[in-house]
Amino acid sequence: MRPTPQLFAPGFIKRSLDEFKRVANIALKQEGLRTPTAPYHLLDFSDPATISACKVMSDADTGGFSQANLDHIPSTLTEPAYARFHGSISNELPPNRPHIQRTGYAAWRNLDRPATIFGKSLWDIDPYTYLALRIKSDGRKYFVNVQTESIVLTDLHQHRLYAKKAGEWETVLIKWNEFVRTNHGAVVEPQTELLRQKVRTVGIGLIDRVPGPFDLGISSVWATNGLSDEELARDGIRKRDGSYRRAKEPEVAEADVPENALR
């Protein structure tokens, strides 16, 4: 039996080498025996290729009239390169489709990453406490969505994306264990913590169903155990005991999104 040519494609070999280097680096630094101090980058939108590895969704996929785009914006003297998630929300129902009762949503997530010689490409964020996002929000009600390689593939773990500085760049931290398990837009009981060793996708959705334009900038997404002094200074946060407290209780999306949305 001969292996398929696809396995020897340059992209496959490079991904496998990158994964080997990452795992080897963890072993050399003994990060498996202690808390990692370096960030684990998941999505870096300074690279335009990251945009093409993402999927954009909206109610337009089922005949609605919302518009959603994810564009790469190059860096300037005052701003980093970032992904601009923008468009317009419409609650107008599509004609001649009586089974569609609600519209007014838009979202994006990364596509399933290509396999390596080690198998499926999944993120192991178990050694990390927080999901960090560098964003510039317009103040609308966004949610962070996380998919894992769980038994129930339609499960979606959600958390409200709390932005404090509309129109300004800021870093938002969300504890991994505060994500809420949902399925088809409804909270699932019993609640179980997301499968931290096998994270498939990360994305952001806007499902407040408020008509009008939206505009959210995302420069990077990573797993971390806390912000560095440099990152704290960048956001104008004074470091005290190194802990981070949640400002509000976690929220989940209302159960009004079609079951095939956001996936």
Question: What does the model show?
Answer:
This protein is mostly beta strands and 263 residues long. Helices cover 11% and strands 32% of the residues. The strands form 2 sheets. The protein has a 7-stranded antiparallel beta sheet. A hairpin with an 8-residue loop joins strand 3 and strand 4. The chain starts with 9 loop residues before the first helix and ends in a 29-residue tail after the last helix. 29% of the residues are buried. The model has no long low-confidence stretch (mean pLDDT 83).
Features:
globular; 6-stranded antiparallel sheet; 32% strand; 7-stranded antiparallel sheet; 13 strands; 263 residues; 3 helices
The coarse silhouette is globular
State the assembly state of the protein chains. single chain
- Overall pLDDT metric: 83
Cα-atom Rg, whole angstroms? Answer: 19 Å
What string, H for helix and E for strand, traces the elements in order? HEHEEEEEEEEEEEEH
Measured by DSSP, the beta-strand proportion falls in 25-35%
Structural class: mainly beta
Largest sheet composition: 7 strands, antiparallel
Q: Going across the biggest sheet, name each strand in turn.
A: 2-5-12-7-8-10-11
Uncertain runs with pLDDT below 50, 5 residues or more? none
Helix content: 10-25%
Number of extended strands: 13
